[in-house]
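Subject: for your reference before the review

Hello V.,

The reviewers asked for a structural picture of the protein, and I figured it would be easier to keep everything in one thread rather than splitting it across files. Below is the amino acid sequence we used in the manuscript, unchanged from the supplementary table.
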Amino acid sequence: MITYVIPSIPRRADMLGQAVRSVAEQTVGCQMVVELDHLRRGAWHTRNAGIRKALAQSASGDLIGFLDDDDYLLPHHTETLIRVIAEQDAILAYSWFEVEGGTDPFPQHRGRRYDPADPHIFPITYLVRADMLSRAMERCGGFQEDTGYGTWEAQDHPVIDALWYVSGGGRFGCTDEITWVWRHHGSNTSGMPNR
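And here is what came back from the structure prediction:
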């Protein structure tokens, strides 16, 4: 079973609709958990709530993916990441993106494998083994609160570090293939604690 966790805010229902459709149109069957942030607690809190729901429904060998409400997947996204996980004996796999409304701010990281000795940002739109995500969440408590605009990567790093640890290190797979679309627009809220 593959489950996507999509945190969302009510004012982005139109973009959420496209995100949901993109999961439904994957070349392999997927389900999703959409978690709405009615109390403006932040993406990190909403994502953690969605993860808890997804983990409660998952079994050994299942995969959990992440998608922000204002982005969308290309139809081959899930199939590509499943292939990367199998070929690279990985617990987690990420791909690259096309930017709609802007330019890629991290072209130097496209296709670059993650190394905690020389860490870099990689997209949250990854697929991860549910059992490993569960262990990582127990270890670190989940995604963390943003400390302010410009430091959005802080919410991701505790989970990434915990996944690296529980997997025994080095079991992150990646590809430079473009499999999803990252929207840049006037309503982006990455890193804004009171979005």
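For the response letter, the relevant points are probably these. The beta strands are 2-8, 31-36, 63-66, 72-73, 92-100, 127-129, 172-183. Confidence is low (pLDDT under 50) at residues 190-195.

Happy to draft the paragraph if you're swamped.

O.
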